Amino acid sequence: MVKRFKTCCSSIKTSSSSSMKVGLLSVVIPLILLTSFLSFSLVSKRSFWGFSYSNPYSKTIKEGFSNETPIKNNSISSSSSSSSSSSIAQQQQLLHVQYSLNDDRPLKHRRRRWYWSDLDRLERGLQRARAAIKEAMNGSRLKDPDYSPDGPIYWNAKVFHRSYLEMEKQFKIFVYKEGEVPLFHDGPCRMIYTIEGQFINKMEINTKFRTHNPHRAHAFFLPYSVTRMRHFLHDLRSFGRIVADYVNIITAKHPHWNRSLGADHFILACHDWGPYSSFYVPELVRNSIRALCNANTSERFDPMKDVSIPEINSGGNKLEGLNNGGLPPSKRSILAFFAGGNHGPIRPILFKHWKRKDQDIQVYEYLPKGLSYIDLMRKSKYCLCPSGYEVASPRVVEALYNGCVPVLISKDYVPPFSDVLDWKTFSVTVPMEEIGELKKRLMGIPERQYKKMQKRVVQVKRHFELNSTPKRYDVFHMILHSIWLRRLNVRLW
User: Fold this and answer.
1) pLDDT tens for residues 323-358?
2) Do the strands 51-52 and 98-99 form a parallel or antiparallel pair, or are they unpaired?
3) What is the mean pLDDT of the segment spanning 246-260?
4) What CA–CA distance (Å, rounded) separates 284 from 240?
5) I need a surface site. Which of 48, 270, 295, 298 has the fewest CB within 10 A?
């Protein structure tokens, strides 16, 4: 047969006719088929097994090995001590392979398992919260053992209630541990900037909303106090350097800032310089949540992203007793009242028109002896709240505490919690240009409408109460809820 094959080959080389080419193909093709058949017969007599890497994320790979390799204790061992180094290296590599010897069939592809990351779980929880809040718009009123929001003081009471309950159920905040007292992790707990220190200190000891595991946190708190910095620093550039250095330390030690460019981080400041302290870190202004008393839209305050918080003057070390109530509407004999310093762009106009010029509109720069500031507020129907150096004023909260309808006289000011509260239902807004017509404006409000507003003031003041131990729906929880709403607007995947 071999000789015939050679003869055919020689004849093919010497002839170029088409008939001889056909003869060659008729001989070569059967030889190829015969060779393939013999190879398959030999391979079919040898056992075969496959393996796949145990890592479910890796690509599934299958390979075959001869059963001539001795196997013992689920590992591939050497047949003799004189094995070559290449054989040992191959055997060591095979130790990382999962295989089966129970049958001689190739293993099936391992099904891939889907693993949720910590961020995936957090975002899925937020997604469920968004869906629940959306459904609450057309749902029934929820029952609550402490308080069920209701009435026109809310833009939508049912939506707010559902959102608040979702916050209580899952909202977690990580407080960065970097920084030292007194500039960090501490703040003033009395006088005009008390809300700044009270919030920082309460977050430090809180166990319901604070988490020490950053992978479980929905938001991250930068606990620096602008008021404390103001005691040691006297120029904005130094403020900016400290804040910028602090953020740089955070970004170097933790991955969370870079993950969102600060969108799930927040600061809280009540000092007038609070907004300016963030200007030296562009991401703080552009992306982060800034909870500020000085909520001035002309100074880059963004109501869609930032949070307006109330300015509260505790007046001393005790928080109890700030909420004094007040006389009923029928016994309030003064139409409007104000007492305070003559500073800022608005108050000089107010003093020009009304300082000691009308018994119905009692405006004082300094109270005469024998008059009580709190008593005058309790006897007044309306309490004037003009802006000073900055737009925020502690008189707004003081008016609510004493059952007095606040009259907001400001420009570019966003009232606290205005994402939830409808301020026009329990307050009066007077533009700076209409200060001269203030009495006419207030006298034009019907008595029935005033009584409704005064009743709503009594209802809404629970959201501005500052307690030594935070209570549900008080100012501490309302600040957290406003931050929670902003975090719901951010999606990280």
Assistant:
1) 677 899 999 999 999 999 999 999 999 999 999 899
2) antiparallel
3) 95
4) 11
5) 298
Q: In the numeric block, which tokens belong to residue 28? A: 């070569």
From CA 457, how far away is CA 374, in angstroms rounded?
17
What whole-number distance in Å separates Cα of residue 256 and Cα of residue 245?
Answer: 17
CA 491, CA 99: separation in Å to the nearest integer? Answer: 43
Q: Which two tokens stand for residue 428?
A: 């009066």
Cβ(248)–Cβ(205) under 8 Å? no
What pLDDT score does 51 carry?
25
130-139 pLDDT, tens digit per residue, is 999 999 998 8
Helices (H), 45-139: 85-94, 118-136
At 140, the amino acid letter reads: S
Dihedral, 279, 280, 282, 283 alpha carbons, nearest 10: -100
Q: Please name which of 130, 140, 55, 132 lies closest in space to residue 98, comparing C-alpha atoms.
A: 55
Q: Which residues pair with 362 in a beta bridge?
A: 337
Q: Are 434 and 374 in contact (CB under 8 A)?
A: no
Predicted TM-score of the model (pTM): 0.77
- Helix 475-488 and helix 194-205, axial crossing angle in degrees, nearest 10: 80
Distance between CA atoms of residues 113 and 111, nearest Å: 6
Which positions ≥6 away from 161 have C-beta within 8 Å?
A: 136, 141, 142, 144, 148, 149
- Residue carrying structure tokens 């889907």: 114
Residue type for 255, please?
Answer: P
The backbone torsions φ and ψ at residue 173, rounded to the nearest 5 degrees and listed phi first, read -125, 135
